[in-house]
Amino acid sequence: MTQTLNSSDVRSNWSQLLKKVFLGETEVLVEKSGIPVAAIVSAQDYQKLQQIKQRREKDFAVINQIRAAFSDQTPEQINQGVKESIAQVRAERKTSPSSK
Fold first, then answer.
1. Taking CA atoms, which of 19, 20, 30, 67 is between 20 and 30 Å from 93?
2. How buried is 31 (Cβ within 10 angstroms: 0-12 exposed, 13-18 middle, 19+ buried)?
3. DSSP 3-state of 13
4. Is pLDDT of 55 > 80?
5. How far is 74 from 39, CA to CA, in rounded Å?
6. Which of 37, 34, 5 lies closest to 21, judged by CA?
7. What is the mean pLDDT of residues 3-15?
8. What CATH number should be reported for the domain whose range is 2-41?
9. What is the three-state SS of 16-74?
10. Distance CA 2, CA 31 (A)
């Protein structure tokens, strides 16, 4: 469950909120003047978020490498190359003894 509290309520209930967050009973979205400014989550959830962030950065690094490798080709050329590669793999599978 996520609670939304203003910053003054968070300050006045800090100890209780930390205990609830630690026990996994709640997460807290902190607002100031009605604008979300921070979140309080367990250390375990924070570690999971960091792992997701690292995986995402690695995934985007691969995407950027692919983008750079094909930067000299138009989208139409890339699509044609993909179609040809798919056709080649399908043809190889049809003739391969392991596919039967």
1. 67
2. middle
3. coil
4. yes
5. 43
6. 5
7. 96
8. 3.40.1620
9. HHHHHHHCCCCEEEEEECCEEEEEECCHHHHHHHHHHHHHHHHHHHHHHHHHHHCCCCC
10. 13
Provide the token pair at 56: 């995402």
Query: At 38, is the secondary structure helix, strand, or coil?
Result: strand
CB 17, CB 26: distance < 8 Å: yes
DSSP 98: G
Q: Which SS3 state, helix, strand or coil, does residue 96 take?
A: coil
Output the CA torsion sign for 3, 36, 24, 19.
negative
Cβ atoms of residues 13 and 38 within 8 Å: no
Contact 41, 65 (CB under 8 A): no
Asked if pLDDT for residue 29 goes beyond 70, the answer is: yes
Tokens representing 74? 């138009």
pLDDT in tens, 40-52: 999 999 999 999 9
